[in-house]
Write a structure and sequence with these properties.
About 30% of the residues lie in helices and about 10% in strands. The protein has about 550 residues and is α+β, with helices and mostly antiparallel strands. A hairpin with a 6-residue loop joins strand 8 and strand 9. Helix 19 packs across helix 20 and helix 20 crosses helix 22. The protein is globular and about 75 Å long.
């Protein structure tokens, strides 16, 4: 057992109101400059919907994440170093600007400088990249509040699997908000896809970052990430992504998106994981067992043996204490009401979601207020407007059981607390029926419903005095797979390479010819702007 601390986040989807405050504040802090106009480290999607970039969840199209080969070993879905070398200048899995959107502004000057005429002057949208006039067709928030329509839902990759089982009539339409950031995965495919070793996972806290000096603009990290949360800065020629606001995290402060969240739906904390069993967990044959395999990686910080080993492995004592109070550990492992996004990608993501009960008004009588027979309560859950099969399609690899367990426990919490506060009755059977104790329900209520700042954000400060020992190897995450699937990610070694390459990846110094020459920066810009003329299109060259 090798103990490592891993930062994580839980978002309670019942509380998200789709205000996009998190997206705007993140944008203003991290990507408010030339070259990142289209980059949204944090965005809020309306589901059902196609997401951002468009159809990012369709891995048959994008080949992101991991898969198992015939021998059951982890391999990058996009292929190993030989395939990447063959496609080094023509990556078929790389999203183009049209898959995101051409960021625009408006010609406001025309409103005041236009000559007198019979027609009111208008501020036409203009590309922030080329300055050309645009006919707007798509954007990062294009489907906001509209995903319940038959047109929007039909294009959702998750909904397509259910269109025969789920009727999408107007009176049965449903929608929900899904905030997304980088998953800061335990087994990140973006790190394993990077030829130059620029992408790395910090051994200290598991946050995935980009070394801007080492980045060589190959963008395999973009195509390798199944969540498409790595962006290419076409101005600087470097990859960029959500960095989990690590300067704030190191100071014991929450991320900007968490700090400014209007709905207080985000929870931050660390979990202790057994890094020796990461490969085993990610290699679980049945996709529906991946959730349980990932939960098995989470170690109990109250266990004396775990605590002892954590201290031996360089995890500070106050970090172990923080793990014991972590809302992420409680909601994901202890109560099992939070679920990971697309565990079938085998990246072992560390941003988890509490599935929504809303809208529950039409079922409120059965679910919360009167309850009736227990069978009636659980039957009401099955009749929710948001089908459990749909939630399971992106939260539990299609397995409905974890979603049902989460929703039943959330309903039990509401019923138990309503009986206590409104009726003055303690009904322990509500907890027992959900597989919990009354004390656990009360604890869960405090965390989910009324948690204060210090309860939601349990972020221990960084120990700079130990950085030369326990946290010295920032180019590694302490995970070393024997078959080369994810040997120290900081070295940039990709799937299929037997052991780490000491010179920085399968191409030596990250360059295809190994001579260390820089790629042509104009090529990068032309590729990202391929829609404006086609020169340099990755699929055309």
């Amino acid at each position: 057992m090798k103990v490592r601390a891993q930062m994580g986040m839980v978002m309670n989807l019942d509380k998200c109101i789709g205000c996009h405050t998190c997206s705007v504040t993140c944008k203003n802090v991290w990507t408010n400059r030339r070259g990142t106009e289209y980059a949204w480290f944090n965005n809020v999607e309306t589901k059902p919907g196609r997401g951002y970039p468009v159809d990012y969840e369709d891995q048959e199209k994008w080949n992101g994440g991991w898969k198992l080969d015939r021998k059951g070993r982890l391999k990058l879905k996009a292929g190993g170093p030989l395939k990447k070398l063959a496609n080094i200048f023509s990556n078929p899995d790389l999203p183009q600007l049209d898959d995101y959107y051409d960021p625009w502004t408006y010609n406001y000057d025309h409103l005041i400088s236009a000559p007198a005429g019979k027609v009111q002057p208008t501020a036409r949208p203009k590309s922030q990249i080329t300055g050309d006039d645009l006919n707007l067709q798509w954007g990062p928030n294009w489907e906001d509040d509209l995903a319940g329509s038959s047109h929007g839902a039909a294009n959702d990759p998750n909904f397509r699997k259910l269109e025969e089982e789920v009727k999408n009539e107007f009176e049965q339409a449903f929608m929900m908000y899904l905030p997304r950031i980088c998953e800061h995965c335990i087994n990140p495919s973006c790190v394993a896809s990077c030829p130059s070793g620029a992408m790395y996972k910090r051994e200290e806290d598991g946050i995935v970052l980009v070394d801007q000096e080492a980045c060589r603009s190959w963008r395999f990290c973009v195509s390798g990430c199944p969540y498409k949360k790595v962006y290419f800065n076409w101005e600087s020629g470097k990859a960029e992504k959500c960095n989990f606001c690590y300067p704030r995290i190191e100071a014991g402060l929450p991320t900007v998106c968490s700090e400014t969240c209007v709905g207080r739906l985000r929870h931050l904390g660390i979990v202790l994981i057994d890094s020796d069993r990461v490969e085993e967990a990610a290699s679980t044959p049945d996709e529906k067992d991946l959730l349980e395999a990932q939960l098995d990686l989470f170690l109990d910080p109250e266990d004396p043996e775990v605590r002892e080993q954590a201290l031996r492995d360089g995890v500070p004592a106050d970090w172990v204490d923080a793990a014991a109070n972590s809302p992420v550990y409680m909601m994901a492992k202890k109560w099992q009401i939070a679920l990971p996004l697309h565990p079938e990608y085998r990246t072992l993501p560390m941003v988890w979601y509490v599935p929504p009960l809303s809208p529950v008004e039409t079922l409120g009588k059965d679910l919360i207020r009167e309850g009736g027979e227990e069978e009636g309560v659980f039957a009401a859950i099955d009749r929710m407007r948001i089908p459990m099969e749909y939630l399971a399609s992106f939260l539990s690899a299609g397995d409905v059981a974890p979603v049902r367990k989460s929703l039943e426990r959330l309903v039990a919490m509401r019923r138990y607390m309503r009986a206590d506060v409104v009726d003055g009755e303690i009904k322990p059977e509500f907890a027992t029926d959900a597989g919990m104790t009354p004390g656990e329900l009360e604890e869960m209520f405090r965390m989910v419903a009324i948690a204060d700042y210090d309860d939601r954000y349990v972020v221990p400060k960084r120990h700079g005095e130990t950085s030369t020992t326990a946290f010295a190897d920032q180019g590694s995450c302490g995970i070393d797979f024997d078959n080369g699937a994810a040997v120290p990610p900081g070295l940039g070694t990709m799937t299929g390479v037997n052991g780490p390459d000491p010179v920085g990846g399968p191409f030596g110094d990250g360059m295809p010819d190994g001579n260390g020459s820089e790629p042509d920066p104009d090529f990068d810009v032309r590729e990202m702007l391929s829609k404006h003329g086609g020169e340099g299109n990755a699929n055309a060259n």
